[in-house]
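Exercise 7.
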Amino acid sequence: MQSLRNPKWVFLVNTAPVVLLMLLCYGEFSVVHTLLPAASVAQWKLYGGVLALLGTGAVGYAAVQAVRREPLGAWYSVGMLLAYSLWLCLLTTNERELLPWGAVPRWMLPTDPLLMAWTFLMPTLAHALLALVARFTPDDRPHNAAPNILLAVVTPLVWWVVFLILSTFERGFSNSEIPSWLREAGTVLFVAALVAGTLSFFFFLVRALFIITQRRGGFWSETSLIWKVVITILLPLLGLGVNNGLFFGQGFRNESGIFGNFSSPWFYLLAVLNGALLCVPDSARPLPRLLQLLGRSALFGYTFYFFLVFLPFLPLSIPAIILIGTGFLLLAPTLLFVVHVRQLSEDVTVLRVLYSNTVAVAVLLVGLAVMPLVVTVDYWHRRQVLHEALAYVYTPDYAKSSRLDAPALARTLAIIRQNKSRNSDFLFGSHLPYLSTYFNWLVLDNLMLSESKLDDLDRIFAGTDGPVGETAAPTATLANDRGPALRDLHTSSHYDARQQAWVSWVKLEVANRDSTAANQEYHTAIALPPGCWVSDYSLTIGNREERGILAEKRAASWVFAQIVNENSSRDPGLLAYRGPNDLDLRVYPVMGQEPRRTSIQLLHKEPCTLTIDGHSVTLGDSTTAPPVATPVATADSGVVYLSSLAKQQLPLVQRRPYYHFLIDASAKGAAHLADFKQRVAQQLAQPLPNATPARFSLVNAYATPVPAGGNWAEQFLQQPADGGFFLTGGIRRALFEAQQKPTPTYPVLVVVTNNLDNAVLDDDFEDFSSAYPESDVFYVLGPDGQLAAHSLRHQPRRVLGSAPVPGTPAPVRAWPDAAHPRAYLPSAAVADVVLGQPQAVPSAETTPPSPWLTGLLLRGYSQWQSFHPETAERERVPFVKASFRAGILTPFTSFLALENDAQKAALHRKQDETLAANASLDTLEKENPGATAIPIDNGALLLLVAGVLLAGWQLRRMRMAASVR
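Solution. The predicted structure, written as tokens, is:
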């Protein structure tokens, strides 16, 4: 144990944590400093400077001792214990001076600086205490454990007596005014006594344990095994049982514990195995002793984890022992840690003689790496499983087929749900301290999965029942009857001859219908015509017009939601795409009938008409600019804009229809094969006019096409009937095939199922509209054998009141010609955007000569990416950055107008996080867009740990106040 006095330990347990703490706190300070008053900024600098001074002093002293080849002295340990304890106590006392109430929103501080300070500095205090014990407990002389045990027991009693005396003293002065200097002096003395008493208690307790485990003969040697069994097996099992509610009738598998969810049988099994390895007598033979070292070091990660979890709670142990009598369980991880470290030290010392120093240290290091590697490999595997599932569902490669490990995915989703759960009996509830945070970082990139996506994944791969997705109402405004509404609308347009496009400003003024309404949100949708892009956005905040920041969409939505969730008067405005051609505008807050003004700048090739909240406006003037009669393309002809005039010059053709049956082959649909065969046969008996042979796809979690001429019913029987009915995947794969290989035929989609509610189905397939130019109708062949028409464009679950007869010929335009078509377009007299090279991804590095052409390029990429989502991880970030450079809004970005610099700094921090994360992960729950999603391990509640240091003093003040009343 004397190795703990090696100066090298200071660099690991003091320098590294202090540097990391200062970097993290600086990151938080750099975001919120503009919101802090001058006095708070001075406090941040003062505490930071003192911490830097302490860290520099420690590393300087350690460096000097290392050069001298001398161990750490006792004065160093005492100085570190007192200095850092005093710093932490003062920081806790002055927390509200660092972060005044109401000055800084909670969401801007993902982890509280006070919590970080206690977490990162506790290892320094623990090492200083152990080094001090080692200094006064050398191995080369006998020691008596009895006085140390006695002093450790007496310390809490003395602490309790002092508390009673001080309380009695205060009651005696309850009817008179206590001078402020005396009250402050009492506080200082009380805190000093509390710190000194706590440190003394742990010193004597740990020193007694050191002496007992020395096995130097006498009583302690005879009972050392009993002590080891109690400390290494009995107390850990008892602590797990108490935490999990085992002794309160809640059983082993209660998933909500006091300090975390340690209900897994693995925790109990590892506790017994760890204790057994520590209690088994040391072997005198070299190889068994080497194996003992390997096993003990391999399980040291288990011991160290619980030591780390309970380290911040150690100040609670004395009041817990006094108040509830079971506080000794808080000490169990520390006692186990001391015994384990002592045992490893003895093993290495012996093996250095039996083998060599290199062999002993190598075995030790290999063993120590086992638990971290096991956890990391397990989490990395879960990350791979999850990302494969997300890629298959949300960014699939429609040209390939794949199979996933559904059981492994189910286990991963269970952990994600467990980590999301906010049920908490006291502190962590269903979370695992530190491990949940590590899981969120490694598996979820510090983001989250919304409940809707979790439900979809469960329904797709496990076939579970889930809520049926609701489709948004097809309305241009989302305002309620009493909330904000559009009060005035102004526009201005001018024709930019340089880029041969119109530049228009649309200025909205909104106000509440109800003059008494406060902190309302204005929310509306705006449909854009083809060839129209958003190039700027602003919001009037106070007396200034604040330009919107073009940011990554998920980050901007998250920041907007957090500000709205504050329910304060801070002013954000958000503009983003809610569909391929629809904008979503949100302004907050709208108070009373005070108007809020916001403006949108649009670039459009031709004059157009917009409808906003029931008001129609015309942008541009067709008499002042020449009509666009020919196609307009980007430099490489990768993306082409076809005006209505240019489109009408394309040849009209009529393609031949064919049935494409999407048959429910899920676990629930498998029982209805005979019924499905009969329905399909009846439908095929009524052929489509001028039809080609029908095609079939079997749809469960995967969409399996049946080869041309194959027997779909036989293939149905041959493939496993498991998972859910992932109809979205089946529809998209069928449409992808039709769009990527334009032919003189087109599919009429027919879904064969007993219940469409069992299907996992998107809210719309608007982004695939270029794949169904003839009609957006698909059909469901239900139990009654009748075809029910549904829309691919809007609310696909709802039955249409009227629809064309299946296979009714609809003429379409062939582009660029009928002989060699690359795409088919609807014949309606509206403009369109097509990809000149459908198989080639547009280049993000291309620099078009005008902003409007840049918007055309970005629009082309968005359309291309809809059919090639497998490239999202590779191409998303370059095109997001291209959107930033051009200042053009895309479906991957948002304009966000913010009130202050702190909000902007928080936005940029969140944006860095989302750009580095998986494209399919979320920042918000769709069901509750105002919810905060910060993986902080319920960190706010951990502030109780620090607050307990002054709990006794606060109780005395409360008693005094009560007696005065």
